[in-house]
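User: My collaborator and I are trying to settle a disagreement about how two of our proteins should look. Neither of us wants to argue from intuition anymore, so we agreed to look at predicted structures for both before our next call. Could you fold the first one, then the second, and keep them clearly separated?

Assistant: That sounds like a sensible way to settle it. I'll keep them separate. The first protein:
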Amino acid sequence: MATLVLDNGAYTAKIGYSLEKVSVIPNCQFRSKNSRLKTFTANQLDEIKDPSGLFYILPFQKGYLVNWDVQRKVWDHLFGKEMFKVDFADTSIIITEPYFNFTSIQESMNEILFEEYQFQSALRINGGSLSAHHCFHSKPSELCCLVVDSGFSFTHIAPYCRSKKLNHGIRRINVGGKLLTNHLKEIISYRQLHVMDETHVINQVKEDVCYVSQQFYKDMEIAQLRGEDNDLMRDYVLPDFSAIKKGFCKPREEMVFSGKYKTGEQILRLVNERFAVPETLFHPSDIGIQEMGIPEAIVDSVQSLPEEMQPHLYQNIVLTGGNMLFPGFRERLEAELRSLVPAHLPVSVLLPPNPVCHAWEGGKLLAHSPDFDEMVVTREEYEENGHCVCEDKFDI
């Protein structure tokens, strides 16, 4: 039987059969300013000729799946002829869901997977549990790991011991990629150019130019310098969707420090925004969110667990999710933890080669593990026992 692994994120769906490669596809629908009546689904985004003023219709709100109509349309597209041509009668599915998901959402998911799509068997599991499985599979001698998963809606810190998650140690911070993009939109709109409707473009700006500062106050001093002395300044060329399809950073040697560009390109000049926006992950209070940053939340999580586990957790911290792609994130987190953790305990922070698909890779490994058949719920079991069999089997 084929196994389809679907890491169903709030921003992108990571999907693929367990014997094939992963595809990363937008988990939403779009409408463009020019064709308001037509709705584009998932990877049909590439068909939109002018994505300015792109309007996102998301199935997730605050990290939870609430718009089933949109999610069904995305899944129909993914499972259908254009994409994966799923033969439901001969396919098992591993699908992710957030920590502490609502029972009503879990039951709706069971019904859709078994009754509408009629998968042969299914496993609902947290993305962090798949990342932990990946970790224990690659390093069987490890007893514990701490998964830091920072995605679109929020950031979770989840401790695992021998593949079992320790619920009372899980911490959630309400800061994710969506909040960072919105914050950057507000800063640019206030300082330079009204971009509040340009989520798609500004998200690309964030991914292209933002980084995590190693010395925040020192970088702030450099950011105040004028002209060529300011080596943090970057000029970003915005797309016009005719000649320039995708925005890009101007090379340093082509930047004009006094006067204007003669090319007619629309330019955003970015200085302290580059590091002040990702800084929110470390200090949410900077923008009025009264919560711990990631380093404090990690320490708080580990200290809530038995003392003998703590050294093992600190030396096996695994970073997953799109926000881990900011340059400098791993180094900064390791440095901050080093100053917070007792000196005799080693601290090791691991950044996988592809943190976005790390959970999916864990699902792929799980699909081939000897215990997999005992973890899933088959359609027969579901038809016989209903939702209670899923509650018993899935460790959510």
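The second protein, kept apart from the first:
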Amino acid sequence: MRSRPRAGRRYGAALVPVPMRNGNGSGVSMIEGWGGIGVPGRELRSENLERVTERAVLSRGLGRSYGDSSLPPASVGEVVNTTLADRLLAFDEETGLMRAEAGLSLLALNRIFLPRGWFVPVTPGTQFVTLGGMVASDVHGKEHHVRGCFGEHVTRLKMRVADGRVLWCSDEQHQDLFRATIGGMGLTGHILEVEVRMMRIPTAWILQESRRVDDIDEFIARLKDASHRLPATMGWIDLLTRGKNMGRGTLMAGDFASADVAPKRFPKPLPRVTMPFELPSWTVDRWSVRAFNTAYYWKHLPREMHGIVHWETFFYPLDMIRHWNRMYGARGFTQYQCVLPDSAGPSAPRRLLEILTSRGGASMLCVIKNCGPEGKGILSFPMPGTSIALDIPVRDDTQQLVDALNEFVLREGGRIYLTKDQFTRPEHFRAMEPRLPKFQEIRAKWDPEQRIRSAQSVRLFGDKP
């Protein structure tokens, strides 16, 4: 199965720079992460990733990593934007095995496969990611406790490694490279093609149950219970309410609905709105976040609700607002995501929230999920425990807040998600990541001169700037 040729393509296999943000004609612009951090540089685009990656220090897709993991070091100008290399190359309807170029987006993949009764076995919380980015971050989702990370379903990768060779890697061939690339933040080579096994689904509708929960301790208990019954679970919690109702929120769980209970029609695309401009940074403060959290909590007026919902509503609620990151203003925001292991005990999430609230942290979005076993990726994020993700507006004291959160996570034996990170200090990361030496050993084998690196690898791994 092959995708249709895209209409209106002007560039062919030519090498072209991405349009500049600053318009100064210099060929250099600010390349930004989703959280608003930016570095000077130039993105190169081509349909032929094998050729264009000769010149680049890093590959990146749609730029939805929050911090600096998809940004080049400040002294290095060029990275590859993979989004023109987005062909669907092969699909086996008997086995679900699909192969595509690394720049194919999850949005396009869903549009192609959902009407045909297939879905990715693991999805992050946005469709605006590429297949290559999903591998590099080894994305996880609401279903991690059942299906693991995305990398568990990837069978092969075609890569261009630092010395210029183009090769395939898998669990049978160059296994060290394969497992270091899954969750390796693009630091082991340029991902050119991805082969992954898709999942059959009965319909594109979701049978969802949701519940309003009064505090974080009850939330953790109910999250664990829902995870035993349903493959997709997550919750939103209120971070600013203190006392006995700290961590109150809404728990959601669900699965694809069977044909006998789902509507007969295929779900229509949902309308989207656009955040037209950046809001002033002062609009996201404790008072506005408190008002939002209170309204969101009481929106779920019945204690329990059951019903059929749209797949986009369930998996990608924030995708309904284009450029939603603009609400945090010119200073931007960071998303802090950690996983607290089961060994830390059920009260660990409450203790983390107490640190956040005691320091005046305000998060409009806090997502909590249950995580299952570690995956095959050497630096993959999840471990058995509870994942907590916080959106934090950047302020003068954000570094101190992240330091305090990291010190707690380190004491409890947890770790952070590199795709979201912007402020972690290298000593904290190295202390919480005992797998790093093995990763660095494999990386040095395939790239002894550190030709492939990022702003994040300079900051955390000690790479040359």
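Some points you might bring to the call about the second protein. The two ends are 43 Å apart (CA to CA). The domain at 205-426 is CATH 3.30.70.260 (Alpha-Beta Plaits).
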